[in-house]
Amino acid sequence: MATNGDFSFANSAPKNPLKKIQTQKRDNGICHDDSATPVKAKTLDELHSLQKKRSAPTTPVQVDNGAIFAQLSEGERQKLQLQSISASLASLVRETGPNVVKGDPAQKTEGAKTVSHHHHHVVAPTIGVSDSALKFTHVLYNLSPAELYEQATKYEKGSFITSSGALATLSGAKTGRAPRDKRVVKDETTEDELWWGKGSPNIEMDEQTFLVNRERAVDYLNSLDKVFVNDQFLNWDPEHRIKVRIVSARAYHSLFMHNMCIRPTPEELENFGTPDFTIYNAGQFPCNRYTHYMTSSTSVDLNLPRREMVILGTQYAGEMKKGLFSVMHYLMPKRQILSLHSGCNMGKDGDVALFFGLSGTGKTTLSTDHNRYLIGDDEHCWSENGVSNIEGGCYAKCIDLSREKEPDIWNAIKFGTVLENVVFDEHTREVDYSDKSVTENTRASYPIEYIPNAKIPCVGPHPVNVILLACDAFGVLPPVSKLNLAQTMYHFISGYTALVAGTEEGIKEPQATFSACFGAAFIMMHPTKYAAMLAEKMQKHGATGWLVNTGWSGGRYGTGNRIKLVYTRKIIDAIHSGSLLNANYTTSEVFGLQIPTELEGVPSEILDPVNTWADKKAYKEALLKLAGLFRKNFEVFANHKIGTDSKLTEEILAAGPNF
C-alpha cells in the first residue's frame, strides 16, 4: 500500500499491456516512419526554401528603340530593372542613384543582385561621397498583398488583420487630405496652361523649391534599409494608359496603391520601361518649414514638366490617389480626352451613364445598381473610344457602414483590402464602423473586382446620360429636370450641393457648397475648359443632361421632407430606360429648368417643388436666395472667355438663374 502520499508500482503489472511498436528496418539498420514520403531537405533552412515557389520574372525592359529583349536572362533583366529604380532615386546634386538590391533586408541576401547606378559625370568628392552612397537600399518591388501584409504586421505599428481578413492601418496625424499644403510648380508652360488665382486649387511654388523638397524626400528614402516600389498603370483604355511608379516607405502605402492603380500582368511589366510619372512618398518625414512657400511641416508637391510628385509630412494614402487624379486632369485634356470626377455604370444593352455629385448626394448609392455593370465609382476618362475607369480599385467611406445599407462594400472588405483608421475589438478584431475615435473619415481601399457586378476591363461605349446630383437642403430644386447643353455646362461648372450645419442654439441652416466640375480640389485647368469638352462630347454622341435633386421637398431642411430614395431610384430608372425623354415638360421659374409633368412611380405633385410648399411666399424667398448664391459663385467664372469670342461664355451665363 502507498503511505504518506507515496505510490509504489513495484508489484503491480498492467492488465492489458501495450503492444510493442513495430518498425521496419532498412538495410542500413536505420528505422523510418513510412506514413509519408520524407521531405527533400536536410536542414530547416532548406525546408523553408522549399516552401516558396519561384515566381515568373516580372522585369520591365524596354530600350529607346522599342525593341523588347525577351531573350535576356533573368539575371540581366533584374539588373536592368534595378538600374531603372536606382535612376528614379538618383539625387539631382550627386547625379547618381543609390546602390540597390532586391529583397527584404531582414532575410538572407547571399547572391542577390546589386546595382550601383553610375553616370559619366564627374562630381566633387565632398558632394559625391556620402554615407548613403556606401550602403545598399533594398527594393521590395511590386509585392503581392500577402507579402505586404507580412511587412505591415511585422514592421509597422498599428497594422492588424481584422476578423474579415482586411488589413487595418493608421495614417498617422493626418487622417485626410491637406489641400492647403498642396503646391504646383509654376513655370513658363504651366503659367499659361493651368488655372491660377481666386477659386483655383493650384497654389504655386517655384522649380527650385520643388527640387529642395525632392532632394529631401529622396535622401530620406535612400537612408532607409528598404523601400517599396510599385510599377502600375492608370486608365483602363490601353491606348491612353499612363505608367506610374510609386516609391514609398510603408507597406500600407504600397498595398493601397496596389489596389487603387491598375495591376499589370507579368508580361506587361516586362515591357514597362521608364515610368511616365513618379511619386516619391516620404510622408513620414516632414518638409523644412524654413523652405520658401512652406506653411506647415506637410507639403504635397506636383511638378508637371518633370512628371514627378513629392509627399512630405503626411502619411494619408489618399494624397497619392488624388495627386495622380490631378495629373490626369492635366495630361488627358492635352490629348483631347476629358477627365471626370464621376461614377459610371452601364446597362445590359450597353447604355452608359455618368454620375456627378459631391459628398452626401447619393453618387455611390445611385451608381451602384445590381441591374447594371459598374465601370467605376470615382475617376473616369471620356475619349474617342468611349469611357474608361482611371483606377483599378475603389476608395469607399466606412463611417456607419452596415451590411444592410451597403452590402457590396461590406463584402469587399476582405483579404487584400486596406482599412484606414478604423476601430476594432482588441480580441475578436471585429471592426466597429460607427466608432469615430480616430477620425470620421474612415476608408476602405479594395480592387474593383471585389465588386460582383464590376465590368472588367473597366471600359464602355460613349455615355447616353449625364446625371448631375445635388442634395438641395433649400428644397426648391425639382426632383428631376432635363438640361440643355448650356444648362449642363452651367451646373457642371457650379457643382452645387447643400450641407446642413448645426448652430449652438440647435437651429440648423442649409449651407450652399459649390465645387467646380464636382471636383474643384483636383482640376488643373480652368473649369470652363472641362465644361466645353463635356458639351462637345455630349453633342457629338447625343448624350442628355439631367439635374437630379436628392435633397428636400415641401420646405427646406427642418420643415420639409427628404425626397424618398425609392422615388429617386424610379427617376434614375426612367432616365436609364429612356422613358423620361418622352415625357411632357413645363419650365420652372428663375432657374428655367425643364420639369416632367408625370413620371411612373413618383407622385406628380412633388415633380414641381412649388406645389409641395404650403407657404408660397417662403418658397419664393428660398428660391431667390439659392439663385443669388448660384449667381455670386459664378462671378469668378464670368469673365473667362472660351474660344476666340465669348459667345459660348454668354450662352453659359444665360443658362443660369434669371431674376
Question: So how many helices?
Answer: 17
Question: Main sheet?
Answer: 10 strands, mixed
Span between termini: 112 Å
| Rounded average pLDDT | 87
Instruction: Work out the number of β strands.
Output: 35
Strand content: 15-25%
- Helix % is 25-40%
Low-confidence stretches: 30-34, 56-69, 116-129, 502-507
**Class per helix and strand makeup:** alpha/beta
Shape: globular
The radius of gyration computed from the alpha-carbon positions, rounded to a whole number of angstroms, is 30 Å
Descriptive account of the structure:
With 659 residues, this protein is α/β, with parallel strands linked by helices. Helices cover 26% and strands 22% of the residues. It has 17 helices and 35 strands. Strands 4-3-5-10-11-12-14-13-8-9 form a ten-stranded mixed β-sheet, sandwiched between helices. Strands 18-16-17-27-31-28 form a six-stranded mixed β-sheet. A five-stranded mixed β-sheet has the order 6-7-22-25-21, with helices on one face. The chain starts with 23 loop residues before the first strand and ends in a 5-residue tail after the last helix. 44% of the residues are buried.
Write the layout of secondary structure elements.
Elements: E1 24-25, E2 31-32, H1 44-51, H2 74-88, E3 99-102, E4 114-116, H3 125-128, H4 131-134, E5 136-141, H5 145-155, E6 160-161, E7 167-169, E8 182-185, H6 188-193, E9 204-205, H7 207-223, E10 226-234, E11 242-248, H8 251-260, H9 266-270, E12 277-282, E13 299-303, E14 308-312, H10 318-331, E15 338-341, E16 343-346, E17 352-356, H11 363-367, E18 373-376, E19 379-383, E20 386-389, E21 393-397, H12 407-412, E22 418-420, E23 423-424, E24 431-432, E25 443-447, E26 459-460, E27 463-470, E28 480-483, H13 485-494, E29 496-502, E30 508-514, H14 527-541, E31 544-549, E32 552-553, E33 561-562, H15 565-577, E34 585-587, E35 594-596, H16 616-638, H17 647-654
Parallel strand pairs: 3-5, 5-10, 7-22, 8-9, 8-13, 11-12, 12-14, 17-27, 27-31
Antiparallel strand pairs: 1-2, 3-4, 6-7, 10-11, 13-14, 15-19, 16-17, 16-18, 19-20, 20-26, 21-25, 22-25, 23-24, 28-31, 29-30, 32-33, 34-35
